[in-house]
Amino acid sequence: MSDADSPSRVPRPGRSDTGDAKTWADTKDAHRLIAEALSRLVAADPTIPPHPYLSRHLAHHAARGNVLDDAHVPLAVLPWESSANVRTLLRQSGAVSAARRQEWLEAWARIEPFIGGAGPDSRLTSLHLAHHAATRPRTPIDTSAARLSGSRVTPLWSDWTAQDNVLAVSETRLESLTRTTTADGRSLLVTGDSHGTIRTWEPHGVPAMAPLHTYGGAVLHLLPLPGGLLLSAGTDGSVRVWHLTRGQLLAEPVHRPGTWVSALTLFAAKDAEEVVLVAHSDGRLGALDPVTFRPVDTPLPFLDPAPALLGGVGLGGAEGMALAVAQGRRVRVWDPRRPDGYTHEHEHEGAVRALVDLAAPGRYALCDDSGYIGFRDASTGRETAVAPAAPAGPAIALTALTVGGRAAVASGGSDHTLRVWDAETGAAIGGALEGHTAPPVALTTLPGAPQLLVSAGADHTLRRWKPGGPRVGAGRAVRRPVTAATLSGPGSTAGAPLIAVADESGTALWDTGTGRSVALPAGHATVTAFASALVRGEPLLVTAHSDAGIQLWSLDRGAHAAPARLAGLLGHSLPVRSMAAFPHDGRTLLVTGGADGTVRLWDLDRACVLACREDHLLSVRDVAVLDTARGPRIVSAGTDGTVRLWDPATLLPSGPPLHCEQRVVNAVAAVPVDEPDRAVLVASGGEDGTIRLWDPGTGLPVGRRLDIGDGPVAALAFFRTATGRPCLAATGPGGTIHLWDIDTGSHLLRIVTGSPLGTLDARQPGGPHPEHPVLLAAGVAGVCVFDIRVEGR
Hints:
single chain; mainly beta; 55 strands; 7% helix
């Protein structure tokens, strides 16, 4: 870069690049001019690396200058962006004028927390897909659209809702969450994880300081104290005292191996000093001085020898606190002002999961495994209100907050949602807050107007929400997670893919060439799997349902006519997880694998069952069909960790089972080979996050394990590139699609979506882009279809 192009050459007071007189009144104007100058140094081609200063600081200057938009932070710099704070800057900058566009910036912000150490190719490809999903939902394929230079995919069609409220992503499961206030009044978030690590975050998701390592078990409880102190406790039975700003372990006042800490809370009885209460899994309860952290001899309630949850309930004024104690389904309230101790108790339908004090004196809220969320008076035990419509499944976490000036409680449920309730009436405030892909395990709040809600989820994410309203940030409503999807055949426009998509609200066939859809009248049972078949020249769609039934549908009337139901297949006792149709001896056969542990073979010509195998000990997770020199072979994978092969002609096992040593085997795929003297291979995707290739003839593994590195493998798909290279696509709960070259074992590309995926389907070249294979990916956030161009640009 020449001196004339150097980032140090920026407009100065009294001058501009055009030589006109230029002055600025404040630093915002200066940063705007810097951003304008730097943006002109960004090459138009996103494959050309920008100067490191641009990738590190351009977005920051644009935000400080109130010009954080696509014009001042061009697309071409985003794949190289290294500050990792675009999403933070967008939240801090607030709304922009309608004249400024932030489409590419917002697309980048949605995948930025998940992009990790991906290379520029993967980052640009992921950005391209995220932008298409956000700006062109359910839009027909435009074959004339210019392809983005450097992207290894061309998005064809999507119905996808990207996440926009992720503060941070943890490599490990989050277990606890709290908020603390620094000496200068700043609010910080603190999380504890399953590996014993404590992390501190700015409210916008940027790490505030170095992590703290307990070198113990999971951190289940965090309790902030004045002076920058923090108490942590968890599964190793210890309580530790930390100085957050120094990053220093000060003391370990409690250490009880063989137990775990079930509760950690502050408590102050009437006319008594405040103490820290520590309850262990064996029912032992102790008190610590919150300054010296030495044991305190103070009256304490008697606990049963079982884990206890504790919640201090303020009684108002100088009356001190009562203590709500939950052990299993029983809740008791202990009032130190009374000589008889426990004032009352009540039983719940399910085990109590959380207790929280309310702003109103003497009031508290609790939730349990039955989904109950109720509000009670600590003095009388009377139920003052109850949530009218309990969420599906257990309520796991609670926190108190204020919404519109009214006391409220937020709950996190096993259905992955958050809900907000009026503490006075129990009525719901707003709708469910959706976005987590696993249960939110801990909640807290951030001060402000309005008060924001923050959740830590078992999906490893830290998220923030606007209680009583939509998610923080713009975006469409969260769609239902996709339960099944497939590329079912060509649509009506130049061979554009026809796809079948199912979620809990229904099933539809989409013609990606026209953008039109038709509903599949499949009834109320959710579709769990699809298969495409050709029976006597008639295209069929096969659907498996949550009631364990299977239905056959004719697609002969075209992509825009409602499919006609032909027949039903009954036999499985639990839902089918995977299906595959294939021709054999002049017939069309269907193999199904179910949660009942059986593999069944069906004749689609006669709509009848041919055989049932019960060799898998547990659920069958996936099935596939191999084309071998001796004819087709059925492959099934199960939770027993084995892959089994079957001969559809004899209906007998074809060789011994493959013991894959991957714990559960979630996915299998057939891997054809070019050489006639080489056998077709089987790929297995495991719960341990690895992919293995197997020679079904010898039962031995081929080559090395391939590790996706971000969680279990949930789905596999085989395809060949435009030049014939054999490749595998793999994905899972991490939401990243990994592409591998099978011949070399090299990792080719990561496509980051930021949302868990459970389905992959590939089709070889054809359609509007005939030289490239097409891949479908579906999961929690929806479905997307794109062609793959791994080789060259």
